[in-house]
Write a structure and sequence with these properties.
Elements: E1 3-9, H1 13-22, E2 29-34, H2 39-48, E3 52-54, H3 58-64, E4 67-70, H4 74-82, E5 91-94, H5 101-108, E6 113-118, E7 128-133, H6 137-145, E8 147-151, H7 155-164, H8 168-184, H9 189-207, H10 215-222, H11 228-238, H12 241-256
Family: Belongs to the pyrroline-5-carboxylate reductase family.
GO molecular function, one term: pyrroline-5-carboxylate reductase activity
Domain Pyrroline-5-carboxylate reductase catalytic N-terminal: 6-97
Amino acid sequence: MKIDSIGFVGTGAITEAMVRGLLTEPAYASEIHVSPRSAHIAATLAEEFAAVRIAKDNQDVVERSDMVFLAIRPQVAEEVVRALSFRDGQMVVSLVAATERQALSEWIGADVHLVQAIPLPFVAGRQGVTAIYPPDTAVAALFDTLGTAVQCQSRKQYDLLAAASAMMSTYFGIMEQVAVWLERSGLEKAKGQAYIAPLFASLAQKANSPGNEPFSALSREFATKGGLNEQVLSDFEKKGGVAALTAALDGVLARIEGKN
């Protein structure tokens, strides 16, 4: 499947990642229209890809596109979206974080086909997993091209995956803490990073291997009885690591659901 014209209102990091993924050969779109606001990103993409067109303004993006992505920060979303005129039946995909569907529909003010999605930076290399809601064949096909689409059957499912996606910084933060500990203990930092990065990459590859082995089973597999991995896991649990992580995820979910 290939879409004739895709547009992005907002030209930030996620837009850049999606455009790069969509135009990797074989390209998924004939034309991609981007907002002129982030001039450097827009110019870079237009110079690199012949299919990229820099629009006059956000309304121009909407008018020229079959599928429009709203890739804007939640702080300015209402102001930006209310200023636009959409066509009834137009496909609109909102990438705006922590924003209720009802609010988006009200701001759009037209009978559009609205889908919400949470793309991650890895879509640039067509290796991203993206939650979408509600299920939609066309949008899922697009994100399957960029990696893997997970179609959520309810808003609750979508919000939970949005909360889980907030783990990315913590993942790298744990890697950094291990590297800092190694350096403090006498190992040069570059050598520590050279070891930790492929170690974590191998663990992620193992978790994502065919068979869908439960994470709990993998944890037991790598925690030899009386071994070092078991010791670290036990200390992490006993000293509040699991409780802190659970509390952080609960807090993120409450924020997404507008409860705090």
